[in-house]
């Protein structure tokens, strides 16, 4: 298990075990890959981030992952793989998120992208995300870097 502080100095625990913190987490985060590019969304308040959000009462975490990717980017997922889970010990509450890797099939224009400005495709992720104001705070802690290393190690990305 990894432990570190996030952008707001909250403690984060990260693990690539099988659902170490909760069998039914209430949040999901989806690292998306489309034709050798990263697919992110541009959140209206937070900025660039991989899509994700809350699991609604009528769905499970995988369904939430597919729905959030579609809503925030217009993308259809070809293959969704569970990677791990992280827990944020916030001031007011504790949140637990599943991390997924998604291979994207196609991206279709949407009528609305909900609270985001829609899809953002990037050839590479910049090295200065931690201090880049365009990027969301959820991209600014070690969850991103350690997850990318895990994906590389498992041969899911180059
Ligand atoms: P509402 O219930 O709609 O009010 O949402 P909320 O504003 O309380 O946010 P949410 O429940 O999604 O998250 C609560 C807090 O957890 C946020 O204010 C963040 O500090 C923290 N948080 C949420 N997602 C992440 C994440 O991916 N990474 C990190 N480091 N913190 C997160």
Automatic annotation (TrEMBL):
Residues of the Nudix hydrolase domain: 6-145
SUPFAM superfamilies assigned: Nudix
One of the Pfam families matching this protein, by short name: NUDIX
Family listed: Belongs to the Nudix hydrolase family.
Source taxon at top rank: Bacteria
Lineage start: Bacteria, Bacillati, Bacillota, Bacilli, Bacillales
Organism: Bacillus sonorensis
Enzyme Commission number: 3.6.1.55
Molecular function via GO: 8-oxo-7,8-dihydrodeoxyguanosine triphosphate pyrophosphatase activity
Record-linked Gene3D superfamilies: Nucleoside Triphosphate Pyrophosphohydrolase (3.90.79.10)
Keywords from the named record: Hydrolase
Protein name per UniProt: 8-oxo-dGTP diphosphatase
């Amino acid at each position: 298990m990894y432990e570190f502080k996030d952008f707001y100095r909250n403690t984060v625990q990260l693990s690539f075990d099988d659902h170490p913190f909760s069998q039914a987490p209430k949040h999901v985060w989806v690292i998306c890959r489309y034709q050798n590019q990263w697919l992110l969304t541009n959140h209206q308040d937070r900025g660039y981030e991989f899509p994700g959000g809350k699991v609604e009462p009528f769905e499970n975490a995988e369904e939430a992952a597919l729905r959030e990717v579609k809503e925030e980017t217009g993308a259809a997922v070809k293959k969704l793989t569970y990677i791990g889970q992280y827990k944020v010990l916030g001031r007011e509450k504790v949140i637990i998120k599943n991390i997924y890797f998604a291979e994207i099939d196609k991206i279709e224009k949407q009528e609305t992208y909900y609270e985001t400005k829609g899809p953002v495709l990037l050839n590479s992720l910049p090295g200065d995300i931690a201090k880049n104001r365009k990027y969301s705070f959820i991209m600014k802690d070690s969850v991103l870097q350690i997850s990318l290393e895990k994906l590389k190690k498992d041969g899911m990305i180059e």
